[in-house]
């Protein structure tokens, strides 16, 4: 297969990044916006072409989607262990290409309106292109090390974009927090990679994921503290994925990351980068599933389920709409992890895997839409807070409609996209573990409740005290909204299971009507409750919050996890470990170096008298030396 | 070839002359005296050149010519040194070695 056009997909955003970055001062803002959009338009069309080509023309051999790899050796460690660079094409990477392309293109178009007049316009588009390039690279990586490289690259571009408003102190702090937390998680990822490299002798996904390959068959050959070494590696890799995907307890960076520009939140912190963790687990799914009977996979499932619940509860109490959406993203990512965790491997057993990828796909569409709508609202009234909003449906009809579509989609109302994928997840959970199913169902209700809480809060309810009359956003912002709304409506009708499944063979899904009905019912209850509470200005919500008391306040404070982390880092790490380390450093490490310097100065002080400046002293030394040498020579000659 | 005087006697005299120069160079404190001592050393070596040429290689004249070169160079050098000393005297009104130690900086 000719993969040249696929290589171009990541390279075009890279070229755009270099052009915009290098000629930062010379390019007019208007031009840079067009350059960014145009570059991505080409990438997107190439991505669609590759997807069509792969899924319908060349991908399938004997009913199974092939994994197509093209690579070159980049770095040799030993004869067998080397790092390759290349591209890997299989159903999930092609699907991710589509997701990244579509969302990134929409965000690029949207940003032309949203960021208009911003002094760093060109820089912003350069960063967006850098991020898109890294995300494409991550998706197409052929081995663990390559994915790690791009993993860090998306981390860096996320850092740059969160801290885009670098004059704002909170933005800088948020960028730093995001970087440090994810970097800390990536330490686990790196150790996991090294363990895998050591025990299996390869980094290649193809070799690692082969169910008949040595790495999967021989997992039990080494053990460490009661588990096999490879299980430890997988758990550590999951920690890396949990850091990027904001799983509990590494979730604390995501809400703060909302300090970045809103389109960035839509692109990075809702649709693409944060699903990298899910993608990583999916990428290594056969390993997770087969090694130690899926021990690591169970961890994935429970962490996912807990995060889904935990984040949904917090989302109900937040008043900053972007933060509500951030917690909602966490919750939905937990859903995807949960789906992966309950998945099997072959045929219909792999429903969870497929559901997870399906949800990733649909979630990217409607969550990006929600963020872009929120951006449109923020653009209009210049505030993030619910208390400043209300009654906007009259002023912003398009935003209102598209937000409603996205909200219905995330709430799981048929026939919108979210319904189909969420239903598959719940069916998979039901077949695997009833407890996880109950959690999932409860979260589905909560999701509907909190999303309609902000919907009613923004577009209905009491009208806010607006200084200027809010107005609908320009067409450059509303067009992406409409396109994404369209995708949120039709996205669910894609027969996903035929394209993507754990064993790449594809299978047929059937509606499970009772379960679907229950899920829809849960969603409708959530919507109904928020209708009661928030549609009209009333006291019901406050009363209810007061009744809950402690639970409400602690959820409002995000269960005090930020404070806990601050306590651990500031009080314990900084005071006890860092202080004593600093003292040791000052006293002994610095002391040695300073001591050497001081000793040199002292010695030279003492011997500097030799250089008297009197020419006669030097002459005396010279002649004395000459005489001594002469005597030695005479002595040698005469013997 | 000077009848009645062997090369050893003459070399002894020039050695004594040379070391008188060395002694003077080290012990004098006056720049002019030091310059004179340097001249003594140079003269000792010039005599050596001539004598060795005369006694050992009488058929050539390199040593003699070389001594003429040395005398010319010594004259130039002396002129330079004296001019430096005069300048120094104008600056600090002294030609004592101990007064110009600071020149090392």
Secondary-structure element order of chain B, as H and E? Answer: HHH
Spatial order of the strands forming the largest sheet of chain A? 1-2
The greatest interface between two protein chains, and residues involved on each side, is: A-B, 9 and 14 residues
Main structural class of chain B = mainly alpha
| Approximate shape of chain B | elongated
| Alpha-carbon Rg of chain A, integer | 30 Å
Number of strands of chain A: 6
Structural classification of chain A: mainly alpha
Count every helix of chain A, treating DSSP H or I runs of 4 or more residues as helices: 26
- Percent of residues of chain A in beta strands? under 5%
Describe the structure.
- Chain A has 639 residues and is mainly α.
- In chain A, 72% of the residues lie in helices and 4% in strands.
- Chain A is built from 26 helices and six strands.
- The N and C termini of chain A lie far apart (87 Å).
- The mean pLDDT of chain A is 83.
- Chain B is mostly helical.
- Chain B has helices at 7-27, 31-56, 62-92.
- The longest helix of chain B has 31 residues, at 62-92.
- The chains are: A mainly alpha (639), B mainly alpha (105).
- Chain A binds chain B through residues 611-616, 619-620, 623, and chain B through 22, 25-28, 34, 97-98, 100-105.
SSE topology sketch:
The complex is a heterodimer of chains A (639) and B (105).
Chain A lengths: L3 H19 L6 H30 L1 E2 L2 E2 L2 E9 L5 E8 L1 H24 L6 H20 L3 H19 L6 H32 L4 H5 L4 H4 L5 E2 L2 E2 H16 L8 H4 L5 H10 L4 H8 L1 H6 L4 H23 L3 H21 L9 H31 L15 H15 L5 H16 L1 H26 L15 H16 L5 H4 L13 H22 L5 H9 L1 H7 L4 H47 L7 H24 L1
Antiparallel strand pairs in A: 1-2, 3-4, 5-6
Chain B lengths: L6 H21 L3 H26 L5 H31 L13
Helix pairs in contact in B: 1-2, 2-3
């Amino acid at each position: 297969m000719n993969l040249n056009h696929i290589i171009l997909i990541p390279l075009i955003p890279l070229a755009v990044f270099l052009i915009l970055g290098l000629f930062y001062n010379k390019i007019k803002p208007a031009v840079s916006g067009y350059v960014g959009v145009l570059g991505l338009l080409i990438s997107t069309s190439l991505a669609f072409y590759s997807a069509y080509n792969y899924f319908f023309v060349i991908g399938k051999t004997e009913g199974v989607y092939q994994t197509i790899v093209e690579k070159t050796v980049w770095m040799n460690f030993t004869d067998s262990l080397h790092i390759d660079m290349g591209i890997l094409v299989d159903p999930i990477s092609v699907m991710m290409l589509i997701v990244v392309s579509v969302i990134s293109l929409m965000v690029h178009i949207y940003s032309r309106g949203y960021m208009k007049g911003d002094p760093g316009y060109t820089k912003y588009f350069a960063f967006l292109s850098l991020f898109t390039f890294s995300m494409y690279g991550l998706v197409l990586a052929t081995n663990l090390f390559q994915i790690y490289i791009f993993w860090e690259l998306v981390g860096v571009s996320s850092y740059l974009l969160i801290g885009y408003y670098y004059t704002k102190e909170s933005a800088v702090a948020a960028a730093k927090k995001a970087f440090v937390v994810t970097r800390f998680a990536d330490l686990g990822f790196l150790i996991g990679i090294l363990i895998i490299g050591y025990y299996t002798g390869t980094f290649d996904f193809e070799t690692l994921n082969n169910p008949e390959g040595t790495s999967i068959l021989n997992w039990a050959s080494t053990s460490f503290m009661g588990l096999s070494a490879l299980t430890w590696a997988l758990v550590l890799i999951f920690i890396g994925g949990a850091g990027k995907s904001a799983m509990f307890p590494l979730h604390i960076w995501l809400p703060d990351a909302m300090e970045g520009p809103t389109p960035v939140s839509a692109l990075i912190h809702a649709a693409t980068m944060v699903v990298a963790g899910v993608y990583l687990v999916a990428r290594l799914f056969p390993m997770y599933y087969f090694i130690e009977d899926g021990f690591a996979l169970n961890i994935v499932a429970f962490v996912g389920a807990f995060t889904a619940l935990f984040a949904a509860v917090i989302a109900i109490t937040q008043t900053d709409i972007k933060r509500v959406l951030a917690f909602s993203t966490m919750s939905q990512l937990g859903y995807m992890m949960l789906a992966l965790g309950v998945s099997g491997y072959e045929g219909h057993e792999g429903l969870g895997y497929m559901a997870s990828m399906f949800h990733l796909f649909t979630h990217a569409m409607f969550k990006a839409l929600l963020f872009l709508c929120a951006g449109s609202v923020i653009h209009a009234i210049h505030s993030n807070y619910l208390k400043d909003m209300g009654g906007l449906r009259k002023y912003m009809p398009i935003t209102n409609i598209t937000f409603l579509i996205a909200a219905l989609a995330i709430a799981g109302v048929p026939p919108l996209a979210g319904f189909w994928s969420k239903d598959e997840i719940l069916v998979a959970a039901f077949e695997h573990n009833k407890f996880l199913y109950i959690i999932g169902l409860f979260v589905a209700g909560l999701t509907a409740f909190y999303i309609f809480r902000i919907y009613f809060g923004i577009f209905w309810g009491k009208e806010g005290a607006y200084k200027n009359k809010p107005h609908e956003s320009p067409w450059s912002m509303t067009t992406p909204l409409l396109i994404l709304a369209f995708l949120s409506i039709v996205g669910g009708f894609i027969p996903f299971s035929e394209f993507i499944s754990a064993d790449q063979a594809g299978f047929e899904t059937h509606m499970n009507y009772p379960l679907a009905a229950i899920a829809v019912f849960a969603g409708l209850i959530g919507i109904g409750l928020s209708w009661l509470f928030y549609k009209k200005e009333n006291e019901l919500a406050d009363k209810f919050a007061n009744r809950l008391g402690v639970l409400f306040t602690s959820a409002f404070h995000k269960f005090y996890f930020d404070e806990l982390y601050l306590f651990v880092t500031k009080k314990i790490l900084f005071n006890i470990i860092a202080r004593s380390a600093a003292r040791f450093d000052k006293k002994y490490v610095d002391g040695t170096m300073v001591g050497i310097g001081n000793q040199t100065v002292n010695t030279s002080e003492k011997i500097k008298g030799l250089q008297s400046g009197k020419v006669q002293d030097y002459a005396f030394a010279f002649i004395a030396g000459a005489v001594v040498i002469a005597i030695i020579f005479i002595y040698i000659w005469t013997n | 070839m000077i009848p009645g005087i062997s090369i050893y006697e003459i070399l002894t005299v020039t050695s004594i002359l040379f070391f008188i120069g060395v002694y003077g160079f080290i012990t004098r404190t006056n720049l002019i005296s030091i310059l004179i001592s340097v001249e003594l050393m140079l003269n000792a070596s010039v005599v050596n050149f001539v004598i060795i040429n005369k006694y050992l290689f009488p058929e050539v004249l390199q040593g003699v010519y070389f001594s003429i070169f040395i005398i010319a160079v010594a004259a130039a050098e002396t002129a330079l040194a004296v001019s430096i000393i005069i300048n120094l005297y104008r600056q600090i009104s002294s030609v004592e070695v101990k007064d110009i130690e600071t020149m090392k900086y």
